[in-house]
């Protein structure tokens, strides 16, 4: 492809993007294809001769789009959002054009230094104290693994990296029963073992009970084990429950245990200062993670990991073989030493575009709009006779179920709600996901898409009610 062709094809691609954004509500939100349907359309062998972009783009429309679940549709209420925004998309295009691999300062000083600045901006935006230092990771899963590995190395005086686990006490990690699966995965990968992850009981708001945590720690100490790390949740995945961060921080300090705060989704809420009372005590934590790639309008992937003891982090991960040694090593950050991967994408650019183009106030306005819409939906459910909430709504996730007047067993009720969700999702008009709370099949609706507005929420609520009542009739 020569530069002339690139320019004319790029113009067409951009016009394709604009029309996709404009028409996104016309697509079924959840892809309706059956397993294997898309693969069956792709030739089994690659083309030997060059193909023109026109033909490839036609196949994007015909072969790929039918198999896309439209995360950017304002009728996408499932999981947690993975928001794009227009400035973020433009930044990703520039990042791709530059094509830099940003493992070391020297491999693109601007990438490293913009990352430093963006992490300082983000830290200020969410109100974290200045003794936290940030680094971008690919996902919260990776950041949490980094936290547990760093805690492990610090606690073992960096011995486990050198010698393996020989002669070490059993290390124990604590979280609540509502923990995200990435923590289960991290303890496996870190060599701690799933059996040494204690899942502490939660209260009626699905938040960790601090006294139960302390009890578990004491029991482990009594048994000769070494409490290593507590992972608390600021916004669980099931219901955005908020663990009592301050009480957990106090316990962590008392027993000198690493305290990692998993705020993967809800951390973004802290950009609005009125939510910061919920995170009191975070100043005592050791590390904190949140995902601008979920709710902060920044394309996947972009995770902000903040840590106090950067030396421990770097001592855990740094490796400098001869071929990576540079003159500036003592005065710059080489972010390859701040995590697992060597090669790194230039992710700070999209943060820079998003934060500047929205402005902090623009982001706050969006977030507050989401909270208001969620509150509206919550009130509708509270006022309704045959729907009820299954968890508090501290932010913008509403957990509820349908229960018709007649008395039904839990099992029948759960089957009915599962059928309701599947019918709604198969309609293509909206997409939501579920969880289980207290044994109930729970519909989860997150009002957090970049472009969602009141009309979408109102229409979704109408459709949910209508569909539920036809199902049960
Ligand atoms: C989404 C989520 C994660 C995992 O995030 P990834 O970036 O996809 O790894 C971890 N913890 C919580 C609470 C989450 O909501």
Automatic annotation (TrEMBL):
One of its GO terms (molecular function) is transaminase activity. Gene3D superfamilies: Aspartate Aminotransferase, domain 1, dopa decarboxylase, N-terminal domain, Type I PLP-dependent aspartate aminotransferase-like (Major domain). This is Aminotransferase class I/II-fold pyridoxal phosphate-dependent enzyme. The lineage of its organism: Bacteria, Pseudomonadati, Bacteroidota, Cytophagia, Cytophagales. Its cofactor is pyridoxal 5'-phosphate. Keywords: Aminotransferase, Decarboxylase, Lyase, Pyridoxal phosphate, Transferase. The keyword Lyase applies. CDD domains: DOPA_deC_like (cd06450).
